[in-house]
Design a protein that fits this description.
This protein has about 450 residues and is α/β, with parallel strands linked by helices. The chain folds into four domains: about 120 residues, Response regulator (Rossmann fold), CATH 3.40.50; about 160 residues, Rossmann fold, CATH 3.40.50.300; about 80 residues, Helicase, Ruva Protein, domain 3 (Orthogonal Bundle); about 55 residues, Arc Repressor Mutant, subunit A (Orthogonal Bundle). It has 20 helices and 18 strands. The strands form six sheets. Strands 2-1-3-4-5 form a five-stranded parallel sheet, with helices on both faces. Strands 9-12-15-8-16 form a five-stranded parallel sheet. Strand 13 and strand 14 form a beta hairpin. The longest helix has 23 residues. Bound molecules: adenosine-5'-triphosphate and magnesium ion.
């Protein structure tokens, strides 16, 4: 069945231009209403799949339409169309639960896209009271909604109480350390230390004495006996981060330690008993390193009794908005600032970006966004450039076309963008726009018609 849309604008000319847009589009059933009082009572009596309303109206304004709709049915998405210089009011509308707002001038393409999103939205995110849909689940600080992470958490719960060694693999920034800490907290070793070491951080000789400790006089500079990190980790968890970086000789020593449960300090004779649970992590392919003889096979098997693979963020997109909202909330809470939310378009960009640096990159990007933009509603244009660049280049769609056709398409895209920008900056006034741009009004009208641009004709 066709979806039903209620379209409200008390200016008859505006309503007429909207109607024209839908003449050739019979995907929806649309009821156009000019009388806003009538629109309000229609909303009180019926349910619609989507309501689109102008903000500034004489009798019942867009905000009242929005509130009436929310009272009747919280899930009913409402798109607000606002005129020039009413961005603040639009933000208010978003706070009260509007699904999106469109600022004039906009093209029919944008309107249709917005309608599609509105019709497809399952939850109308009510700001600032966020639904569980947006908060997600939390296990030891691991936020998630995806099945992939949910399976990992089930696995953590199952294997944590055993003393089996665990190898965690996954791209950089996916949350491997978070998983390691969760395992520790649910293990029998949780009353003792969780000692993380980065295997790539130190030169071999220093690293050896860090791990195993050294006796006084073992080498120049060893002025007193030092306990190794493995001793501190006794009866606790030893987290070997970047384990692929272990040198061959340390691999041998570590293997011996795992087999004998004993270590010897550098320059020492005495064997010291250690019982540690080893969790290792790497973003490299350790199996491949084994086949290339870069990593000992016996050690690999010792370390990887259980393997956990943390998938990259782009393979579990349902986690992106949950993480993004949580990260933003944390920035706001830290500053005691009001909570913020992302516009549907900004959400789309966050979902589309491939996040090569995973959750850590998301944190960095949103940190920059938080400090550079102080608005409560974060729009797509407020996001850092690399994300926007990820959206396909405007030319990409035309590269396969004939040169002439492609060139005309590029010009069309430019014309639309140029005119939207300049109309907006000239209050939608065509005479002013023409003067500013050095164009004649006829050309402007041609472009407006070509792209079905909705503007307020106040020349
Ligand atoms: N599911 C998640 N929920 C909440 N925070 C997360 C999640 N995954 C990762 N993070 C956060 O992202 C950051 C990176 O995570 P972490 O250090 O665990 O990744 P990593 O896989 O160890 O990265 P690297 O390979 O670069 O060491 C941390 O601040 C972590 O708290
Ligand atoms: Mg890490």
């Amino acid at each position: 069945m066709k979806k039903e849309i209620l379209f409200i604008d008390d200016e008859i000319e505006m309503l007429e231009s909207y109607k024209k847009l839908f003449v050739a589009n019979d995907n929806y059933r649309i009821k156009f209403v000019e009388n806003s009082i009538k629109a309000k009572s229609l909303i009180e009596e019926n349910n619609y799949d989507l309501i689109i309303t102008d903000l500034k109206m004489e009798e019942v304004d867009g905000m009242e339409i929005l509130r009436t709709s929310k009272q009747k049915n919280k899930e009913q998405p409402v798109i607000i169309i606002s005129g020039y210089a009413t961005v603040e009011a639009s933000v208010e509308a978003m706070k009260e639960g509007a699904f999106d707002f469109l600022e004039k001038p906009f093209s029919s393409k944008k309107l249709f896209k917005c309608i599609e999103r509105g019709l497809n939205c399952k939850t109308n995110y009510n700001f600032p009271n966020k639904s569980k849909e947006i908060i997600g689940d939390n296990f030891e600080g691991i936020l998630y909604k995806s099945e992939a992470i949910s399976n990992i958490i089930e696995l953590i719960k199952k294997i944590a109480p055993s003393n089996m060694n665990v190898l965690i693999t996954g791209e950089s920034g996916t949350g491997k350390e978070l998983v390691a800490r969760a395992i520790h907290r649910h293990s029998n070793y949780n009353e003792n230390n969780f000692i993380p070491v980065n295997c790539g951080a130190l030169p071999e000789n220093l690293f050896e004495s860090e791990l195993f400790g050294h006796e006084k006089g073992a080498f120049t500079g060893a002025v007193k006996t030092k306990h190794g990190l493995l001793e501190f980790a006794n009866n606790g968890t030893f987290f070997l981060d970047e384990v692929a970086e272990l040198t061959q000789s340390l691999q041998v020593k570590l293997l011996r330690m795992i087999e004998d449960k004993k270590i010897r300090r550098v320059g020492g004779e005495k064997e010291i008993q250690v019982d540690v649970r080893i969790i290792s992590a790497t973003n490299k392919n350790l199996e491949k390193a084994v086949t290339e003889n870069l990593f000992r096979e016996d050690l690999f098997y010792r370390l990887s009794t259980i393997q956990i693979i943390v998938p990259p963020l782009r393979e579990r997109k349902v986690d992106i908005l949950i993480l993004a909202n949580n990260i933003m909330d944390n920035f706001c809470k830290k500053d005691d600032a009001p909570s913020r939310r992302f516009s549907p378009e900004a959400e789309e960009i966050l979902l589309e970006y491939p996040w090569p640096g995973n959750v850590r990159e998301l944190q960095n990007v949103l940190g920059r966004t938080y400090y550079l933009c102080s608005k409560e509603l974060i729009e797509s244009k407020d996001l850092p450039l690399p994300l926007l660049k990820n959206n396909r280049g405007i030319y990409d769609d035309y590269l396969e076309l004939k040169y002439k056709v492609a060139k005309n398409k590029v010009i069309e895209v430019f014309e639309e963008k140029y005119l939207l920008y300049n109309l907006k900056n000239n209050d939608g006034n065509i005479t002013k726009t023409a003067k500013k741009c050095g164009m004649d009004r006829k050309t402007i009208h041609r472009i407006l018609k070509l792209f079905n641009i909705i503007y307020k004709n106040n020349e």
